[in-house]
Amino acid sequence: MNVVLIVGSAPDAVRINSLDLSLFSSCIAINNAWRLKREWDYVIYPEDFPIQRQPKNSPVIKKIITAKDYVPIQNKIVRYFIRINHIATKVRNHIRF
User: What are the backbone angles phi and psi of residue 61, rounded to the nearest 5°?
Assistant: First the structure.
């Protein structure tokens, strides 16, 4: 079973320091959360994330994911759900309960 830890930049994110991270299949940091520990499987941040806050290429971070990576996928998912909603609306309009 895959158990993924996703940590954001919330004030209580420091609680990960008391966790046994070996229990997780992957550890993902969002935005500034990458500063909380040295090793991450994935670090994700948006295109407007300030350069001075971005992690430098590090051998202990397996993959850095930026907006260039996730926005196209995100847009495909949004278009998919828009189509599903459009189809559901057509079906609902043709079926009377």
Answer: -105, 115
Residues in a beta bridge with 64:
43
- CA 86 distance to own-chain centroid: 27
Q: Could you tell me the two tokens for 11?
A: 């004030």
The Cα 39–Cα 62 span in angstroms is: 8
DSSP letter, residue 16: G
CA distance 58 to 47: 19
pTM over 0.90: no
- Rounded Cα–Cα distance for residues 47 and 57 (Å): 16
Strands 40-44, 4-7: parallel, antiparallel or unpaired by DSSP?
unpaired
Could you identify the residue written with the tokens 């994330």?
49
Identity of the residue numbered 27: C
Residue spans of alpha helices (H) in the chain? 67-94
pLDDT score recorded for residue 89: 83
Strands 26-30 and 40-44: what pairing? Answer: parallel
